[in-house]
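Q: How would the structure tokens look for this protein?
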Amino acid sequence: MLVLGFCAAAMGLWRAASCFAQRNVPPLVRRVMRLVAVGLFALLITPFDRGAFLNWTHMTIGVIIALL
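A: Here is the predicted structure in token form.
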């Protein structure tokens, strides 16, 4: 269920960024939305319970998404 939610959110962000491209929205907003969409997929492929490296990678990606 979590995977479906992340995929739906990522696709929604990507599509929203595409819709914003047709309007007069600053390019930075579109880039950030697409970075967050990619970051959601990156969170899925870095399980936090498979060792220290993947845990730190997972946490770093999560913090970067939150800051964006």
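The first helix runs from residue 2 to 22.

The chain has one domain: 2-67.

Upvote if useful.
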